[in-house]
Fold:
Amino acid sequence: MCLLLCITGCRSAETPVSAPNESVEPVPKQKLDGFSTQHTEAGIVKWTLVGDTSTFHGSYIEVENPTVQIFEDGVVSMTINSQKGKQFLNGSKKDNLHLTGKVVGVSEKGKLLTEILHWQNLAGRLYAPEEATVVRGDSTWIGTEMFANPTLETVKMKNNRFTLYSKDEKIDEYHKTTIEPE
Structure:
């Protein structure tokens, strides 16, 4: 009996202990090669997500090399590619997407480039907390804290820097908007 207690005591003493400041990533519950999902509302596709591999972590799914297509009125309004992505599965972030690493979004109105991009599903908008670049033809608009609709028709940013050319912007006859050349 005494020998059994010594062996048990020695065994538990050898168990490695994590450092107090070390972040512990949840252990994946399931990993798949090739991944595809879609989000629908009332039978209408709102977005699709396809990736090379996926890892299920309980409250979210992590995806490698994701491609996201966001739909409006049954038509793809933007296609987004990045190195990593997450789909949140519950709580207030349910059906939100988080994309990181060389994020490139392409719509009919232009191209979006950033390192971090969130798709806020309920609001139906894109959010880039860090620097983002919107490109239309030769025109570029750089800023931070970007909010945009998926067509890039409406974009709001802080800390703006831009080079705009009138040839890249359509003149709105209703608002009589013009853009002065550089």
Remarks:
- The chain is about 5% helix and 55% strand.
- Residues 47 and 70 are 4 Å apart (CA to CA).
- Residues 2-13 form the longest helix (12 residues).
